[in-house]
Design a protein that fits this description.
- There is one protein chain.
- This protein is α/β, with parallel strands linked by helices.
- Helix content is 21%, strand content 26%.
- A seven-stranded mixed β-sheet has the order 5-3-4-2-1-6-7.
- This is DNA methyltransferase.
- Belongs to the MT-A70-like family.
- Keywords: Methyltransferase, S-adenosyl-L-methionine, Transferase.
Length: 192
């Protein structure tokens, strides 16, 4: 953890980041072994325990007045709020990415009771950040590779805090205007 603390201090601009987006590699139970090893997150990248995610020193990166945009999964909403608290943010609201197929239809994913057609994200704050009031809570965007978030989500985040310094944790793609951190920051190449 000491090297992570130093790494975050090295990344932090003088006044901190006004917007932090994070997509932690949540470990949670799936119904089949295939879900863990082939189709699910465990087949794509190394997962982290909830305690390890909560222990990350994310507050080091945050400006006094900042927003956390935390991607979650439906079965892990309570845990996601606990992560937000551990990182020094207060839960304020939630949004949803409505996943679209290449033909524009709602996705028909897996699920435990309902079939998932989207992915939740939570918004938390630290201090009193100035945010735009023009960003909707639903983002429609294409379903792409596993865990790859839509460009529309980054556009919404940028519209929410247009002047903020931004960082994406557990990033899988570098993009202009963002600092990226993670072990797969070039998995999908550079964003346009």
């Amino acid at each position: 953890m000491c090297s992570l603390v130093q790494s975050f201090y090295d990344l932090r601009p003088l006044d901190g980041f006004g917007l932090i987006m994070a997509d932690p590699p949540w470990a949670f139970k799936t119904r089949s072994a295939k879900g863990v090893t082939v189709k699910g997150a465990g087949g794509q990248y190394r997962l982290m325990t909830l305690d390890d995610i909560k222990a990350m020193p994310v507050s080091i990166l945050a400006a006094d007045d900042s927003v956390l945009w935390l991607w979650a999964t439906n079965p892990m909403l309570r845990e996601a709020i606990a992560v937000m608290d551990a990182w020094g943010f207060t839960f304020k609201t939630a949004g949803h990415w409505a996943k679209r197929t290449p033909k524009g239809k709602l996705a028909f994913g897996t699920g435990y009771i309902l079939r998932c057609a989207g992915e939740p994200f939570l918004i938390g704050t630290r201090g009193a950040p100035k945010t735009s009031k023009r960003v909707r809570s639903v983002i429609e965007g294409p379903l792409r590779e596993h865990s790859r978030k839509p460009d529309e989500a980054f556009g919404a985040a940028e519209a929410l805090m247009p002047d903020a310094r931004r960082i994406e944790l557990f990033s899988r793609q570098r993009r202009p205007g963002w600092v990226t951190w993670g072990n797969e920051t070039q998995k999908f190449g550079d964003a346009a």
